Hints:
By secondary structure, the chain is mainly alpha-helical. The protein is 66% helix and 0% strand. It is elongated. The model has no long low-confidence stretch (mean pLDDT 95).
Amino acid sequence: MISNAEHPVAWALLVYQIDDLREHLDDLAKDMADRGLIDDEEFRVRVAHAYAHLNRIWNSRADGAEDAMVRRMDEFSRFPTDIDPIG
């Protein structure tokens, strides 16, 4: 796992991904509560976008290279193979 002390740029990008994910999920929850419905396609797109952020958070956690998030975006966006859902 990277740290702010050793990899400040990569750490900032990791924290940004978490903040962006939170914003997207908050917006989704608010929109659903306000409207009382959401069509399947919009829900699919918005959840897939959230998954992409979550996948990047997990997959980039150990890469401290400053340009890793840009250089490896496609790789980091894939669903992880090294974690099992809990709960």
